[in-house]
Specification:
about 300 residues; alpha+beta; D-amino Acid Aminotransferase, Chain A, domain 1; D-amino Acid Aminotransferase, Chain A, domain 2; 2 domains; 9-stranded mixed β-sheet; 7-stranded antiparallel β-sheet; about 25% helix; about 25% strand; globular
Length: about 300
Amino acid sequence: MSEVKGCAYINGDYFSPDEAKISIYDRGFSGVSVFDALSLYKGYLFKVDAHIERFFKSLQAIRVESPLSRDKLKEVLFETVRRSGLKNEEGIVFIIATPGAPVAPAFEKSGPKPTIIVSATPFKLLPPAHLPPKTFTEGMKVSVARTRNIPPQCLDQRIKSFNRLHHHLAQLEALDAGADDVVMLDIYGNVSEGAYCNIWVVKGGTLFTPSGHLLHGITRDTVFEMAQREGIKVLEIDMSSYDLYNADEIFFSTTGGGILPIVEVDKRVVADGKVGPITQRLHKVYWQMHVDPKYATQVIK
């Protein structure tokens, strides 16, 4: 029996993560895929229905029909988590769909059977868990990439897909610059997002985040909710690197890491170089919401 913690569902069967396989001809390997990711925390899955809804919107956009209904997918999601062995461990749960492997003829009317994957994996095996633990409390260093984000004329960022080679190239720039992670700009030079997350700036007690065509993150929506709950004003605006250099606080928001404080941008220290009070407040509320039945579903008891 595998010693690797976690579980993967593929087209009707459950596997341990190191035994799960799909065809090398699956069109997911050519970049045709969509996914969603949920946070598993203390046995709770966060905002399950919102993630499933976004997943089905991505499927609709790439014209792939799921063989599982929303309710059936939820059942599979819960069962995968229960089989994962992650009762007392933080995890990431992925839902992935591809058009599957071509059949002969490759584009017959019925088309290939889509591949559906659900996996529950320990958080420590995936980014941003590779960062030192102190990063989550003391802040991270980022650099602004020369590589730009893909414009909506080429790919609508609302489709949550694995087409992210540009993010990989941008992260290589960050690595070469000695930074922990990267900030992406759009083709006009406006701040867009991180490689796998949304970005937020605090200035004068107001919270700002980029507007425009970018990933509609579930965690991003959660930050809006938390800000309203905490009485913090939020605005969506166009921002440049200048706004990052002169911010009072900056943080990323992402499913896996939650609220990730940023204390340095392009070797420019943000304010006093410490995690700011608004970032700390939102970090605390974010994880409180993860065990609140109003927002989270307890799958493992």
